[in-house]
Amino acid sequence: MYPRILGLPSWGLMIGLGTLTGYLLLARLARRDGHHRDLAIDLTWIVVLGGLVGSRALHVLEYWDVYRNLPPVEMLRIDRGGMSWYGMFATILPAAWWYARRHGLSLLEVFDLGTVYLPVAQAFGRTGCFLAGCCWGKPAEHTLWAPIAVRFPVGSPAWLEEAVHALGIEHGSVAQLRAQLGSLPPALREGSYALIPVQLLMAGFGAAVLAFYLLYHGRHRRLGQPFAAVFTLLALGRFGFEFLRADNPMVGEFTLHQWISLALAAAGALLWWALGRWAPPYEPRAAAARD
């Protein structure tokens, strides 16, 4: 675990690198499609600001039982982690709709271009999660996971959760639990149990979806279909990866994010099919429109 790199929070650093990567890809795609370069800058602001607000808001709602007992300022402390992926859609999509309408652009075209940020955010964001030691996986009990299993050090979020559970208490600070190392099972005195590196698996999946998007975006298809396809793939992936995670509470048979994933995957697949029948075809604008 590397919570800080070059003196900077590793998760924040990866988000910054992801934002830069997304912008460069978006600028290239927008230029190829004949859009002004300002479109890439504007959409980047929408994604970054909208994503931070929406994902933080959903996280606070998910863990309201914790935050309602803390000072209100803690709800804003994103530097301490706590972001929920699906929350960003509640803010980014309406903002993108407003932007497209204000500038007389096709909403589907704006969605298609902005979609590049979705797999980029997963690839870089989940790498940041791994470096920070959050969003950890389940114990690597099956031999299938043994070669790639990881152990997070004492003091990491994964270790903290396992130590609290082992001591049979509801919560405790890192300092308190360090003082009780002797009371922990031997395996937890040097770090967490061997865990599935689900963060890296999700990051790799995000990179694969990004490669698919870049190939699909410029090919013969209907407007909006790249957005719908990527949306569906990421939702299906999230549903599957949740089975390997150990940090999200269950809501019935599945986690909250799995229920959301099922609904969004179905909606995305239906949208992709509908757009294939009724949306206008993708046609890059004239080169003169780029300046």
What does it look like?
This protein has 291 residues and is an all-alpha fold. The protein has two domains: 7-150 and 194-280, no CATH class; 151-193, no CATH class. The protein is 57% helix and 3% strand. It contains eleven helices and four strands; from the N terminus they run ββααααααααααββα. The strands form two sheets. Strands 1-2 form a two-stranded antiparallel sheet. The chain has a two-stranded antiparallel sheet with strand order 3-4. β1 and β2 form a beta hairpin. α1 (10-32) packs antiparallel against α6, α2 packs antiparallel against α4 and α9 (198-217) packs antiparallel against α10 (225-241). The protein is elongated. The termini are far apart.
Low-confidence stretches: 287-291
Q: Provide the domain count.
A: 2
Percent of residues in helices: 55-70%
As a percent range, the share of strand residues is under 5%
- Biggest sheet statistics: 2 strands, antiparallel
Distance between the termini: 46 Å
Strand pairing plus helix content: what structural class? mainly alpha
Strand count: 4
**Widest beta sheet: strand line-up:** 1-2
